[in-house]
Write a structure and sequence with these properties.
Strand content: 15-25%
Number of helices: 15
Largest sheet: 8 strands, mixed
Strand order of the largest sheet: 3-4-2-1-5-6-7-8
Shape: globular
Radius of gyration: 21 Å
Helix content: 40-55%
Order of helices and strands: EHEEEHEHEHHEHEHHEHEHEHEHEEHHH
Number of strands: 14
Oligomer: single chain
């Protein structure tokens, strides 16, 4: 079967974040399907721009569309997003000539501006049109207070959302509880499938044979532990949705009562400078820049506990599916998450402890309790991770393929 997976911000080896399209394409290729990932030649998550046209990256075929470069301004990013659909249409004949006509066109939505173009493309080729929803647009933007509901752009996105749900032959969503929301916006019954994020099969194999990496940050963790302290690790984005101020405030509480718990925070984001200022003067908190995934995995394995936090927000009642949670499960001996119980529905097996959101005292207590519990054995972590391996998820993704006829 021929699958076109459209994702404007697709990542992968040497590309940057958002590896899900790469891993799904790799798994489908191993199942005998022909797959091409269509992405933007430039976007803000790329490590460097990509030349338009086909490229093969570690066994996965990509086609990069020519999209305009932009800086930090939102207008340039919007123009880049708007260009993806027209460029997809202009390049579709060349993509088909290179990779064959699609049986399924999958539009994965870090934004919705290209979805109608993807739908028209699928119909023109006589292919099925599937929609993958990563975040609920425009609900996510409004619920997080980023843009008011009355804004004209939110009205446009709301119209595009309803149109997308009605037109898709199938909707795949990363959020377990989102179907009811989608049904109120036009999604017909029987078209919803929950497929969360996961871990690659290669990373599961590496976890089984994880050698001690030679890296200064891993040496730092080992040194702190030799001094009799425990290490709590956060690795991921540092923006407003990540609720890292709660982690820092929990560290401040623990610094007063338990000087033997040390926090290492890895990553980047719009809130990083503000968070560093908030942590100024705390002797048990240190920040470091982003590092390669293999180093993060080594750090997780060396640490005593990993932590992740979400704000209490009705948006998360639809579910969550952060990439880091699956990495944490596989590599970290303990995981504490601060979030509403509803947010974790379907993913409870990934963590060892859950506490209320936006409550530094509760998070501090949960961390102390987790650190007093035994480590989760590697065999248990691998068993859980295999349920979320991309080979398993890729098979589930195509599980209702009989409707193709």
């Amino acid at each position: 079967m021929n699958i076109w997976l459209l994702h404007p911000f697709a990542g992968g080896p040497g590309l940057g974040r958002h590896w899900r399209p790469f891993w799904l394409a790799d798994a489908w290729g191993r199942m005998g399907h022909r797959v091409v990932v269509v992405s933007a030649g430039f976007h803000h998550l790329h490590r460097q721009p990509r030349a338009p046209g086909p490229q093969r990256i570690e066994g996965v075929d990509f086609w990069f569309l020519e999209t305009p470069h932009y800086g930090k301004g939102s207008l340039g990013r919007l123009l880049n997003n708007l260009s993806f659909g027209p460029q997809l249409k202009a390049s579709s004949a060349a993509i088909a000539a290179q990779f064959g006509l699609p049986d399924i066109v999958i539009a994965s939505s870090p934004h919705l501006f290209f979805v109608s173009a993807a739908h028209r493309l699928a119909r023109s080729f006589g292919a099925k049109f599937w929609l993958e929803i990563r975040d609920l647009w425009p609900e996510s933007i409004m619920a997080l207070g980023m843009t008011p509901r009355w804004h004209p752009l939110m009205k446009v996105l709301g119209w595009k959302e309803r149109s997308a749900y009605r037109s898709a032959d199938r909707v795949i969503c990363l959020l377990a509880g989102a179907e009811a929301h989608m049904r109120t916006r036009g999604l017909p019954a029987g078209r919803f499938t929950w497929i969360p994020n996961g871990v690659s099969d290669g990373e599961i194999q590496r976890a089984l044979a994880l050698d001690c990496l030679d890296h200064p940050l891993i040496d730092c963790i080992n040194r702190i532990q030799r001094e009799g302290r425990r290490v709590v690790l956060y690795a991921g984005g540092m923006g407003p949705p990540n609720a890292m101020e709660v982690i820092i405030d929990a560290a401040a509480e623990l610094g007063k009562a338990n000087a033997k718990i040390h926090f290492i925070l890895i990553g980047s984001g719009t809130s990083r400078a503000e968070l560093k200022q908030r942590a100024a003067g705390l002797g048990n908190v240190e920040f470091h820049d982003e590092v390669e995934r293999s180093v993060v995995h080594g750090m997780l394995s060396a640490s005593d506990c990993a932590v992740v936090s979400f704000h209490g927000n009705a948006l998360y009642h639809y579910g969550i599916s952060p990439n880091k949670l699956f990495d944490y499960c596989l590599f970290a001996p303990r995981i504490v998450i601060a979030c509403d119980v509803k947010a974790l529905a379907g993913l409870e097996d990934l963590v060892t402890s859950q506490c209320a959101p936006d409550d530094p005292a509760a998070l501090a207590a949960s961390l102390v309790s987790a650190l007093n519990d035994p480590k989760r054995p590697l065999s248990d972590r691998v068993s859980i991770a295999r349920r979320y391996s991309y080979s398993t998820l890729a098979a589930r993704y195509l599980g209702k393929i009989g409707d193709l006829g």
